[in-house]
Give the backbone structure.
Amino acid sequence: MPLLEVKNLKMEFDLEASGKFQLFKDISFKIDENESFLSILAPFRTGKSTLLKIIAGLEKPSGGEVYLNGEIYGNPDGRIIYIPEKSSSLPWLNVAENISSCIHHTSFGLSQNNAKVEEIIGSIGLNGYENHYPDNESTGFRFRISIGRALALNPALILIDDTIKGCDNLTKKELFDMLKDIAVRTGIKFIFSTADVSAAARLSDRIVIMKGHPAEIVKEFRLKETGGINLNLISAIGDIFQKDKSDDSINFII
Amino acid sequence: MVKENKKAVYRYLAAYLVLWIILFEFILPVNNILPKPSIVIESFPSLVTDYQLFPNYLSSVAVIYLSLFCAYYVIFFTGRLQGKGNIIFKNFIFSLEWFSEYIPGIILGLLLIFWFPASEYIEFIFAFFYAFIPMMIKLQKAVHQVPDEYITSSHSLGLKSSYISKMVIWKFSQAEIFRSMKRIHFNLWLVLIAFEYIKGGYGIGNIFNKALIYVDLSAFFSALIITGLSVYLGNLALTYIYKKTIFWK
């Protein structure tokens, strides 16, 4: 049984000016047991964030279902955590407080203690920075805190909404290594939405490509089958987006 | 940059002071525009004896800072509880804000002065509402400006709604309220002096009233200096509290 199954999701809005607007339709994919990272590669305004929020149970779709371990997942219960694009770590709490708040003040009835906070801080590479405040630090630092907050709940799946697009390549590599390490140690799986081909290819086991208006899944690449990130993969993805000249927000810089 | 600006302001203030001393002490004759600096210094003792500076000053300061403190703490407790707020209350607050956009607050304040009878308690209640309403308007605005990512991720992480109200919405709003505190503080001095000037009783406004009745320019000028210094020191204290409370900004 797949950990996550997304079946025929669609999202429509009623706009006063132009009537019904369909953001995406027929979105279906699975995360298998042997996969840790799945990237959703799509240009801007294709509904990546909305799709992730629906999967996390934070928004209701116009149609379709999300299954987690074979059961419909409709409301947040701590098993799927969504990390927004902009920093969500609270600037008035330091690193340790940001993480411990997710242990002590959650409505999911966790019974954990401060040793768990120290363990998480270690796993996100912020040992010695417990008393630092997020607003004085870099995007990468704040992303680590967001991951730490998510880890406090021992989720099955973490959804990352293009959070690290502002980071330089070295920081991205460090963050990807951290995520891979967490995935190996904890078994947590990740869905990562991005418009950056390089980031998707470096991190993922599989890349799902969404495009069009309304957006649809047009292609999937399993990185094991393509032999990892290489020119063939990049040119194949390039071919998909070059057919539609309006999709110029995809970043092909490796 | 801010430090440079402050230095420039202090330099200008020193220049005005020197200019005032040179022009009005040594060059110009006694006039009704500005008093001689030596006469202003001499008028301070008479301000204490003839105008009862201490009780008047303490009365104004007590009313201003007590009302500011009480208004903030009422906001502090209601703000932490209300979360996104009740729609009727929210609309009431926004309707007050609408009025204040077209009618200057000081005019509304003067209108209220006529409604309230003269009394120390009434003066306090008047000052309290004059501080409370702009703070509540600021809170209502701030509540709706909390970044969506804070709320979305809090819901995703399953944070309790009481925790979200207290530690996410209120904390964000608190910074916005504190940012408007200097303006509220200044306006409070303004309307309180107007209240005391019109209604009499104890207060700095009463000193201004008497000084004008007796055409005592030097006493008026001394009271003006004391008021200016008090507002300045009040602002320094508020800046200190802001830096301590909203330390993450």
Observations:
- The radius of gyration of chain A is 18 Å.
